[in-house]
Specification:
By secondary structure, the protein is an alpha/beta fold. About 20% of the residues lie in helices and about 30% in strands. The radius of gyration is 16 Å and the shape is globular.
Length: about 180
């Protein structure tokens, strides 16, 4: 496994996503997501069984509304009481840590993968994985996009539709594209 594309991905090095081992892991995730997204809500509960077992960590009371999409699942680490509303997408090629009590509105997107800047690199499937961390008790508004390598502090608010390209301080409110800080009233 030394030098495998999965090892490179986990180490934050350039890797190719066009890899049989990574594809097999994505297929496993798609199967778990299919179950989660198609089970009747009363039968599914907060998390479909296969999705719950796929996640890296899911604290007590984590709830993910359907539909939900992720790339691998094992890189997702959710604290207690985290809530993801319908339509969230997390491309978890790197670790995504979401602190307890944090709320994600509908259609929030988190992208850890950054594709190569050169067209030849993109054609070869080259990408690099950058982690995302969101502190406890944050609120991410619907349709927000969070790029890889970003940390969002505890208690922060990201306005609906914001595109977060840089770190957000604890208790700050950011809006817009790119997201910028605004005064809280």
């Amino acid at each position: 496994m030394a030098g495998s594309e999965r090892v490179k991905m986990a180490a934050g090095q350039w890797y190719t996503c066009l890899d049989d081992e990574l594809e097999a892991l994505r297929v496993t995730a798609r199967d778990a997501l299919f179950e989660h997204n198609t089970l009747p809500p009363r039968q599914r509960g907060n998390l479909g069984p296969a999705l719950k077992s796929l996640l890296g960590a899911a604290g007590e009371g984590v709830r993910i509304e359907a539909p939900f999409h992720c790339a691998y699942g094992f890189n997702l680490l959710f604290g207690a009481g985290v809530f993801l509303n319908a339509g969230c997408t997390i491309l978890d090629t790197a670790s995504v840590r979401i602190g307890k009590g944090t709320l994600l509105g509908p259609n929030v997107q988190i992208y850890c993968a950054e594709h190569h800047r050169q067209a030849t690199g993109r054609r070869a499937g080259l990408e690099i994985a950058r982690p995302v961390e969101i502190g406890a008790d944050a609120w991410i508004g619907g349709g927000a996009v969070i790029l890889g390598g970003v940390s969002i502090g505890e208690g922060a608010i990201v306005g609906a539709g914001a595109v977060v390209t840089r770190d957000v301080s604890a208790n700050a409110t950011v809006v817009g594209n790119p997201a910028r800080s605004v005064r809280r009233g």
